[in-house]
Amino acid sequence: METDCIAPARPRSRADGWLDWVQMATGAALALFACMHMIFLSSVLFGAGALNGLSAVMDALHLETVGGVLIAIVFCVHATVAARKIPFKAAQAATAWRHARLLHHPETWAWVAQVGTAFILAVFITIHIWTGLTDLPVQALKSAVRVQHGGWFWVFLLVLPALALHLVIGAWRAGAKWGLITRENRADITRKGLYLLGGFLCLSLLTLLRFRLLPLE
Amino acid sequence: MQRSLTFNIFRHNPQDPASVPHMDTYRLDETDSMTLFIALHRLREEQDPSLKFDFCCRAGVCGSCAMVINGRPGLACHTKTRDLPDTITLLPLPVFRLVGDLAVDTGTWFRAMYQRTESWIHTRAEFDPAAQEARMENEVANAIYELDRCIECGCCVAACGTANLRPDFLAPAGFIRVARFAADPRDQRTDADFYEIIGSDEGIFGCMGLLACEDVCPKHLPLQNQLGYLRRKMGLTVLKKLLPFGG
């Protein structure tokens, strides 16, 4: 008789454990970088000179070139390793969608949102890294031109919330998976995660608006 | 005021080639302290004797009457109709083999899981039938009992995103079983031994941390904390394997 019992396990290797570590470590590194990158760019809120000054210091230390290349590598590794958990097959994707709709469970929907934003970020950040690294150093005027011409403002308007969602949900899930978020502190950390989401969104959208309104002369 | 409840219930007999999965609608007047268990019995006795669902203890002990209630896995005998809206949709648990209508075969799944997790005390100690049973600190015994309260209802498995996506996933019920033996001082298995059971994407590294299992468990087992504990334990085990002195 055919049964849908649990399938037999395959022989063990260290690979899955290692990949889990790599996924978490690269995700944490990218999340930290995204926060620092946003704080760095938001210095434009104090004027173009503030951002240009910071950028000059980082450029003198070769942080923008070396750091940029390193981040590009970490980004590629994270995207590749994390993709193995995405249900790419149509039947799997349909199952995941049906499951989320049926369950009405916020954390399950959050995972769906994280997968959706991953696709947006994979495309945009690849382009962003390329355009950024081939046009160093970062300068307020160059960024303002990019935002004010060519429709990039609208792209950023889509990507920044996607980044904020992906980052906060990813950090929350890493905490849940590794036991930093426990039954006892779950509600408290979820609330703090929402504050972080709001704070990141406000800062990034204000910065975007500042670039939009920055005089180009 | 007495409510008239509408039940949308999944119907299908997989043994009958002519059977097509569909939803049937029933209506029933709500009574005081009515549970879904009572409602289903009344529907079967008063309206449709062909309706299939499992039950046994009606007290949240046997785990037989688990089903998807308005989207969430839960026990019919634990669920009061007064906590639900006027329209109630009942589906069988996913992941498990469908027996018919709301009845699923959780036994086959759990037996396979017990075999895969080698769900018994592993010891090299010689068994002496004349000796007294080894004593255990009350605190340790309570900790083991807390992990041993699973009633095998399958709600956590049905709510698990990964278990729905891949049939080889051990699922929360399997992890809490492993945690129970990891906490037992009589079990001489090492972390490396447990890694052989759960150190993979079909095991603990496949858990996506969605915590639906924690939220639907009718016995409120500490699934979330144990999943985190096992992942750290197995994560450290794989790191130790890298070190020359790590074993």
Automatic annotation (TrEMBL), chain A:
Pfam families: Sdh_cyt. Its main location: membrane. Keywords: Heme, Iron, Membrane, Metal-binding, Transmembrane, Transmembrane helix. It is found in: Membrane. InterPro entries: SQR/QFR_C/D, SuccDH_FuR_B_TM-su. The chain crosses the membrane at residues 21-46, 66-87, 108-131, 151-172, 193-213. The keyword Electron transport does not apply. This is Succinate dehydrogenase/fumarate reductase cytochrome b subunit. It comes from Nitratidesulfovibrio oxamicus.
UniProtKB/TrEMBL annotation, chain B:
InterPro entries: 2Fe-2S_ferredoxin-like_sf, 2Fe2S_fd_BS, 4Fe4S_Fe-S-bd, 4Fe4S_Fe_S_CS, Beta-grasp_dom_sf, Helical_ferredxn, SDH/FRD_Iron-Sulfur, Succ_DH/fum_Rdtase_Fe-S. Its cofactor is [2Fe-2S] cluster; [4Fe-4S] cluster; [3Fe-4S] cluster. Residues 141-170 form the 4Fe-4S ferredoxin-type domain. Its EC number is 1.3.5.1. Keywords: 2Fe-2S, 3Fe-4S, 4Fe-4S, Iron, Iron-sulfur, Metal-binding, Oxidoreductase, Tricarboxylic acid cycle. Belongs to the succinate dehydrogenase/fumarate reductase iron-sulfur protein family. This is succinate dehydrogenase. It comes from Nitratidesulfovibrio oxamicus.
